[in-house]
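Researcher: Here's a chain I'd like modeled. Treat it as a single chain, no partners, no ligands.
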Amino acid sequence: PLIAAVGLGPTLAVLPLACAAGFAALAVRPSLLVIAAFDAVSRAAKHAIATPAREVLFTTVSPEEKFQSKGFLDTVVYRGGDLASIWIYRGLGTAGLGLAGIAMATVPVGFVWAILAVVCGTVTFVFILVMAYVWLSALWVSDRRPDAVGLLPADYDRRACLLPPGAPPGD
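Model: Modeled as a single isolated chain. Structure tokens:
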């Protein structure tokens, strides 16, 4: 419903904007309460909005290409994002930034991520842009638990939400 209402690009941008807002809040008030709220909102946005919307990006490739690329994305890109986030955090900490400074430094990257999300959702499938979006997703909100399953009904046609209103659904 959200994709049909606002489009794929803005839907993909929900998580990056939530993360940018969360990091801004953390920069203003670095507390356990803000961290807990930020974690809850980012996980909810990831599992309820971003993951299903990201799966729509794969409807433009064949099942074989999807299978091959998802394995690469889920292992190399996500784990690379985990490693990069550790290096960046330690590097910024070594440079003398505390939690608030590191959080403030990540806010602009969240906005770049949101722009990239809108571009990925509105332009014909461009693999490099999608890889960058997924890598940024992994960098900030990766968790080691498997993605939630069953967020969409089995008979839900993801391609139908990309059709103009009144167009007949395709195969």
